[in-house]
Amino acid sequence: MCDKIKSVKLPKHIEAWDDEREVGNGVIVTLTRGWSFYSTEHLGVCGFDTVTEAREGTRKKNLYRCKCAFCKTETNCSVCKRESSVSGMAWIYNKNGTPVRLVCVKCEEDYWRNAVQV
User: Fold this and answer.
1) Which of 8, 23, 42, 91 has the most CB atoms around its CB within 10 Å?
2) pLDDT tens, 14-39?
3) Helices in 58-102 by DSSP H: which ranges?
4) CA–CA separation, 45 vs 3, rounded Å?
């Protein structure tokens, strides 16, 4: 049976779906803010070996509503109002390679200012 990903609109609880099997990584799924693969802590990204496993693992009945600090933060940039999704954020690293700020990719406003210690 062919296990191809078709070009379809993703459900609202899935932000990104990347088929990286050709490079040995599997199907990588990123959930939108407020959803988690674990019930006890935030896990918003998970890898699966097959598309079938990814589809089953991302059904809402197999996911949890997340109430961690990240999911509770403001969901839009305070300056340009861009939604703070994974694709809308970028880490700023210091010279040692340690992430120090999480910023909006459009206007570089600090997302977690006064909300969460990074």
Assistant:
1) 42
2) 988 889 899 988 999 998 888 999 88
3) 69-72
4) 21
Helix (H, G, I), strand (E, B) or coil at 53: helix
Q: How far apart are CA 46 and CA 36, in angstroms?
A: 9
30-78 pLDDT, tens digit each: 988 889 998 888 888 999 999 999 999 999 999 999 887 777 765 666 6
Give the chain's end-to-end CA distance (angstroms, integer): 44
CB under 8 Å to 14, separation ≥6 — which residues?
A: 29, 30, 31, 32, 58
Cα dihedral 95, 100, 105, 110 in deg (nearest 10):
-140
Q: In terms of residue numbers, what domain contains 100?
A: 73-118
Total residues found in the chain within this entry:
118
In a domain? residue 6: no
Q: Which of 87, 14, 84 is nearest to 44 (CA)?
A: 14
**pLDDT band per the 50, 70, 90 thresholds, residue 114:** very low
